[in-house]
C-alpha cells in the first residue's frame, strides 16, 4: 500500500512522519488479517483528518468512520496513536475513498431507542448498547446480519480503547521527593494548562478592572511522574483569565526546563501521585 502525499507538508517532514508511523506499526498484526485503523486525509469539504476502522470482512464496504481528529497532521497522528496504542492493529494514513467509505445505510440503527442514528454516533455515547447489538441482538433478516457484523467491529474498537483506559487506571507515578526538599535539573512536558485570576492581586482603577492571571500547569517527566505548579503573570490583563501578550502562554506538549524548585506538597488523586512545586526557577 503506497503512502499518500500529505497536503501542506514538506517532503522531508513527510518522510519523518512515515518513519515514525512505521515504528509504531512494528510488531503489530497485518492489516489483511486483523484490520487496521485508518487516519484519513482531509478533503475539500472536510478540513479535518479523521479516524476510521478497516475490518477484513468478506462482504462489501468494510471501512467505517469512528471520529474526527485535528486539522494538523501531527496532532491527529498523536491523538489516534494514543487512543489505539494497545491495539494489535496497525495504523495507516490513507486518502478518502468515497466508493468504499460512504455509508450505504447498513450502519444505521433501525430498532430501539436510538432508531435512525448511525452506529458510530451511539458508539461514542453508549458503547454498551453497541455491545448489546453485537452479541445479544438476534437478526431476523439478512440486512440485520450485516448490521450485527458492523456492530461487532465497533465493539472491537471499544475493547481496544478500554485496554488503554485500563492501563491508565492502574499506572501510577511516583513522588519526586519529600515536602520541603529541593529538586534540580527537571525536564518536563506540559500535559494541561488552566488559567485563573489571582483574587489577591485583582484591582479596579476607576471603572477598569486589572486581572493578574495565573497558569496552573500539570506536567510529567520522562518516566511519567506527575508534577504541578503555578506561575503568575507579572503584568495585568484587562480580560479575566486571559494572559496579556507580554506573558509566555504554556501549551500542552511544550517542554519545560527547570533549574531548581522546592517540593511544596505531595498528594494522590485517582491512583496517581502528584508532586506540587513552588519557588520554580526556569533555565
Automatic annotation (TrEMBL):
Name the UniProt record assigns to this protein: Exodeoxyribonuclease X-like C-terminal domain-containing protein
Domain annotation Exodeoxyribonuclease X-like C-terminal: ranges: 112-134
Pfam families per the UniProt record, alphabetical: ExoX-like_C
InterPro entries: ExoX-like_C
Originating organism: Bacteroides stercorirosoris
Domain of life: Bacteria
Amino acid at each position: 500500500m503506497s503512502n499518500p502525499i500529505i497536503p501542506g507538508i514538506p517532503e522531508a517532514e513527510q518522510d519523518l512522519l512515515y518513519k515514525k508511523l512505521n515504528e509504531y506499526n512494528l510488531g503489530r498484526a497485518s492489516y489483511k488479517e486483523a484490520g487496521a485503523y485508518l487516519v484519513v486525509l482531509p478533503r475539500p469539504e472536510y478540513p479535518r483528518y479523521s479516524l476510521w476502522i478497516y475490518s477484513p470482512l468478506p462482504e462489501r464496504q468494510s471501512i467505517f468512520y469512528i471520529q474526527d481528529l485535528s486539522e494538523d497532521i501531527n496532532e491527529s497522528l498523536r491523538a489516534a496513536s494514543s487512543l489505539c496504542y494497545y491495539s494489535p492493529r496497525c495504523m495507516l494514513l490513507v486518502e478518502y475513498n468515497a466508493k468504499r467509505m460512504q455509508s450505504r445505510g447498513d450502519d444505521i440503527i433501525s430498532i430501539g431507542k436510538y432508531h435512525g442514528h448511525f452506529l458510530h454516533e451511539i458508539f461514542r455515547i453508549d458503547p454498551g448498547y453497541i455491545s448489546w447489538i453485537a452479541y445479544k441482538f438476534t437478526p431476523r433478516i439478512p440486512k440485520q446480519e450485516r448490521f450485527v457484523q458492523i456492530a461487532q467491529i465497533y465493539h472491537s474498537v471499544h475493547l481496544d480503547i478500554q485496554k488503554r483506559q485500563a492501563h491508565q487506571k492502574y499506572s501510577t507515578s511516583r513522588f519526586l521527593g519529600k515536602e520541603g526538599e529541593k529538586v534540580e535539573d527537571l525536564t518536563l512536558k506540559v500535559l494541561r494548562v488552566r488559567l485563573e485570576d489571582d483574587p489577591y492581586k485583582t484591582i479596579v482603577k476607576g471603572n477598569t478592572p486589572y486581572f493578574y492571571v495565573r497558569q496552573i500547569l500539570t506536567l510529567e517527566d520522562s518516566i511519567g511522574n506527575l508534577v504541578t505548579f503555578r506561575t503568575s503573570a507579572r503584568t495585568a490583563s484587562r480580560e479575566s483569565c486571559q494572559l496579556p501578550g507580554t506573558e509566555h502562554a504554556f501549551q500542552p506538549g511544550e517542554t519545560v526546563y527547570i533549574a531548581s524548585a522546592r517540593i511544596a506538597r505531595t498528594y494522590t488523586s485517582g491512583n496517581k501521585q502528584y508532586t506540587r512545586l513552588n519557588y520554580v526557577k526556569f533555565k
